[in-house]
Design goal:
This protein has 307 residues and is of the alpha/beta class. It is built from twelve helices and eight strands. It folds into three domains: 103 residues, no CATH class; 50 residues, no CATH class; 70 residues, no CATH class.
Length: 307
């Protein structure tokens, strides 16, 4: 089974199907024959507009997900109720998922520009592609307007003056949340394994993690791969500390300091006691001994005088 998303671009059905047509199909091999189903995703208008600095004209809300597989696989797919999107009676045999919220930029994978630049590597290029004889660094420096940071979009700061300020989403065009990928995998009854050819922000892999589906993903650079691994491990540890998660581990949760648990007091040196008002300060032992000897000497003198 192959799953493609068209990113809201129409007319890609023929291209997708052609990419899976080979000589075996022309020779009459039944195993090579593929059928398709189209699942249309309707995104929330408000959540899409929230990502924009300025809203003008119409807001495209639809994206198609193409499910391509052998006919018997699609026809024998069991009926399941939707996990979270659609009406209460909706099942996976419907062709529409709506309304689907789009994550806020601050909820996506965000990084400082220097880290993002290293992570994307040679796959980083200006919008519209490279120009002949142009340099990416120069074109970025000559941009009339820098892309917004998550802090700017959240209303926490003004527009940045340099690219080094604040953090920005790793992928501005990423729309599909972890919850949406969970719904898609649940709808097509995938439970054995997933191979992600475009890992992107890792939401598909995180959905596989939550559904306990083995998955393999292709990353763009070694930095992308190592950062993705660290990100998924952190997600798993968060699930192990969450009492509502099926991955919850009481033993592990006990090792995580809770925000409501007061921190243990730091060791400190004993401070000298401050005498209460009206109470004489105790004399040091040597001074008391000296005073006692002087008192005894005075007593001897008095006894001698009395004699």
């Amino acid at each position: 089974m192959f799953i493609f998303a068209d990113g809201g671009r129409t007319g890609l059905t023929t291209r997708f199907m052609k990419s899976l047509t080979d000589k075996a199909e022309k020779s009459g091999n039944k195993d090579a024959v593929k059928s398709k189903r189209i699942l249309t995703i309707g995104y929330e208008q408000e959540s899409l507009q929230r990502r924009r600095r300025t809203v003008r004209g119409w807001t495209p809300q639809l994206e198609n997900v193409y499910i391509i597989a052998q006919p018997q696989m699609l026809n024998s797919m069991p009926t399941r109720k939707r996990k979270r999107f659609g009406e209460a009676s909706s099942t996976n045999k419907g062709t529409l998922l709506a309304p689907v919220p789009v994550p806020r930029f601050e909820e996506t994978w965000t990084l400082p520009w220097a880290t993002k630049k290293d992570l994307l590597g040679p796959f980083r290029m200006p919008v519209g592609g490279r120009t002949d004889g142009g340099d990416d660094e120069e074109e970025e420096d000559e941009e009339d307007e820098l892309p917004p940071t998550v802090q700017e979009l959240a209303g926490q700061r003004k527009k940045r003056k340099t690219r080094a300020e604040g953090e920005e989403p790793l992928f501005y065009q990423s729309l599909k949340s972890v919850e949406l990928w969970e719904e898609v995998l649940h709808s097509v009854c995938i439970n054995k394994a997933v191979v992600a050819f475009t890992v992107g922000d890792g939401n598909l892999l995180e959905a596989c993690l939550k559904l306990n589906i083995p998955a393999v993903g292709f990353c763009m650079t070694p930095a992308h791969m190592s950062s993705m691994h660290e990100r998924l491990v952190k997600k798993l540890l968060d699930l192990m500390a969450d009492a509502t998660s099926p991955f919850f581990s009481a033993e592990y949760a006990q090792t995580i300091p809770s925000a409501s648990t007061p921190a243990a007091p730091k060791p400190h040196e004993p401070q000298p006691e401050v005498p209460k008002p009206g109470v004489p300060k105790p004399r040091p032992p040597k001074a008391e001994k000296k005073d006692a000897e002087e008192d005894r000497g005075e007593d001897d003198e008095e006894s001698g005088n009395s004699e």
